[in-house]
Each structure stands twice: as C-alpha cells, then as structure tokens.
Amino acid sequence: MSVITDKLGRPLKDLRISVIDRCNFRCTYCMPKEIFGRDFIFMPKEQLLSFEEIERLAQIYVDLGVRKIRLTGGEPLLRRDLPTLIKKLTEIDGLEDIGLTTNGSLLGHMAEKLKAAGLQRVNVSLDALDEELFQSINDSGIKPERVLTGIEKAKEAGLEVKVNMVVKKGMNDKEIIPMAAYFKERGIALRYIEFMDVGQSNGWDFSKVITKKQIFEELKQHFDLESVEPAYLGEVAKRYRYRGTNTEVGFITSVSESFCSTCTRARIAADGKMYTCLFAEKGFDYREMLRSGMSDEEIKDAVVSVWSNRTDRYSDERTEESAKNRSKIEMSYIGG
Ligand code: SAM
C-alpha cells in the first residue's frame, strides 16, 4: 500500500464522495430558496458519476492509502439505490470505514437497508428541536419529529449515530442547551459545527459565527464535562464527555481553531471533480478521465499528481477579506 503526501506532508487518508447535488431541504444557510429555487438547474443524471464509476474511483483512492469514505451530498438518501453502492464499497479490500452524512428525513425508511448493505455509521444533521424554528431553517416544511424518528430507526437498526448541529448566531443559539439535554438523555453524541464561509450563497461573516469557546462556556453552566483524547491524528472534532457517562459532545471548530495542518481529506463532487479543500475554487475532472478510457494506473497517477501538489490551508489563513473575495464552490455541490 502506498502513502502519498502533499506539499505540507499530509497523507491522503479520507475521501468524501458526494453522490448527488440535490437536496429536499432548503436550509437558509446552505441552499437558500432565492438561489436554489424552482428554476435552479441541478445536474442531469448523466453528469453524475455512476455507481460503477464511484466504485472504480474509490478503489483507486484506497490503493493510494484512503481508509475512510464518507458519502454525502446534496442529500445522499435521494440517490436511488444507495444501499447497492454501499454494498459494493464494503467489498473494497483495505477500506476500513464507510460513513454517511444525511439530513435524516428519509432515514426512517432507509435505516435497515443501509445497515444490511454494510453501513456502519451515520451522521445526522439537525439544527433545532423546536418545530417552528426547524421548519424555518430547512424551509421545506419538514418537522424535527421526522428526523428524530430517523435517528431512532438508525439506532434500532444497529447503526452508530452522531448528530451534527450547525450553530449560527441569531438562527439557533437558543437550541444549544435543549439539543445537548435531548441527546445526552438518549446517549447520542452531538457535535456543534461552527458556521463556515463555504460557498457564495450563505451571506457569511465572522459576526454570525458562534465559536466553540462560546458554546462550551454555555454548556459548562449546565453540564459537567471532561475532555476525551483524540482517537487518531487528524480527528476533526474536539471531544468531551458528560462526566460519569459514555455520552460525548464535540465541536467542529473550522473557524476558531482550524485543523488544516492535519487535514488528510480529498473530496469528489457528484460530477466527478476532485477537490483538495472544502474551500477550493477549482476541481480536477475525473469523470472525463473515467469516460475517456484511461486506465486505473493513469488515473492513479493523476490523483498522485494533484495530491502531491496540494498546499491548501484555507481555514488557517482565513480573514474577513479572503472569505468575501474568494469564489468558492457551494457546499451542496462539493458535499459537506
Ligand atoms: N444533506 C446532508 C446533510 O444535511 O447532512 C449532507 C450534505 S450537508 C451540505 C452536510 C452538512 O453541512 C450539514 O450538516 C449542514 O448543516 C452542513 N453545512 C452546510 N453549510 C454549512 C456552513 N456554512 N457551515 C457549517 N456547516 C454547514
């Protein structure tokens, strides 16, 4: 097995694959209706990588050292027959872990099928428990109960579940404590995600970010927390445990404490473009390579060439200026 490293010595170990650019939510901070409205043109089916193409790329990346793959989107559960893809991916020798990030709205129906296909873990995004607030954030009429049922079904099916909550000032700060209490009681890990300046559509600025430090201070007033050592180098979440329990709460601090120096992740968008950073401006087109008859070895060489020239450390260098002026791709396209 080869290990390839980039210009800053970071190995390629994780791969996020977006399987679709569509979503059934219109979260105001991610896919606002004013931009992703009825007239928005999503990718036609033939532009999406096929399952065979995804499997082939996944195998190539595993041969190059990738050990973890996470499927995302858009909303990955909107991709027809997703369990078939998962089953195929589990058969790749050397791949140790497959995860899925979902808004949970379709998880109730899908959990058992996903587990049967070999999925181990699912991260469910949920930004509020309050019905009215949740509906105003997702802007698509979906109630939190539906996501909570999805979470329950996923647990019943034997999937490991974590919940991710993006915290944005003025949007859902009031939900920080209710979310912690709810998931603590059920023994489910909750992670707070700092609102990031991905894409061009979400009107980001620093004043809308609630940092880990601020959330932590608030949590400490209600709960007794102890820190948990990272499970491996490059673990993204800063982890804590409610003292006396095994239940964790964590933080994804991509704004206040960036983690570029240990970022080992590549991303493939639904149309087969590879990105070496969530905040990238430019991708590398693998779909074209796959469809033009290139051999696995040739595609491998192309991946190695892109990764070994990687210098990205956007979050380390972020300023209000760079956040505004850079033309970044959208989260729904690159896959969160
Ligand atoms: N539809 C799936 C879901 O909801 O989990 C997968 C894609 S979604 C883009 C992945 C995650 O990115 C979600 O948890 C979403 O809340 C998060 N996200 C989107 N825009 C974000 C932003 N500007 N800052 C932080 N997280 C964001």
UniProtKB/TrEMBL annotation:
The keyword Nucleotide-binding applies. Pfam families: Mob_synth_C, Radical_SAM. [4Fe-4S] cluster 2 binds at C260, C263, C277. The keyword GTP-binding applies. S-adenosyl-L-methionine binds at Y29, G74, S125, M196. Keywords: 4Fe-4S, GTP-binding, Iron, Iron-sulfur, Lyase, Metal-binding, Molybdenum cofactor biosynthesis, Nucleotide-binding, S-adenosyl-L-methionine. Residues 7-226 form the Radical SAM core domain. Pathway: Cofactor biosynthesis; molybdopterin biosynthesis. Its EC number is 4.1.99.22. Its cofactor is [4Fe-4S] cluster. Signal peptide: none annotated. CDD domains: Radical_SAM (cd01335), Twitch_MoaA (cd21117). InterPro entries: Aldolase_TIM, Elp3/MiaA/NifB-like_rSAM, MoaA, MoaA-like, MoaA_NifB_PqqE_Fe-S-bd_CS, MoaA_twitch, MoCo_biosynth_MoaA/MoaC, rSAM. It catalyses: GTP + AH2 + S-adenosyl-L-methionine = (8S)-3',8-cyclo-7,8-dihydroguanosine 5'-triphosphate + 5'-deoxyadenosine + L-methionine + A + H(+). Binds 2 [4Fe-4S] clusters. Binds 1 [4Fe-4S] cluster coordinated with 3 cysteines and an exchangeable S-adenosyl-L-methionine and 1 [4Fe-4S] cluster coordinated with 3 cysteines and the GTP-derived substrate. SUPFAM superfamilies: Radical SAM enzymes. GTP binds at R16, R70, T101, K162, R265, A266, R267. Monomer and homodimer. Belongs to the radical SAM superfamily. MoaA family. Catalyzes the cyclization of GTP to (8S)-3',8-cyclo-7,8-dihydroguanosine 5'-triphosphate. This is GTP 3',8-cyclase. It comes from Oceanobacillus neutriphilus.
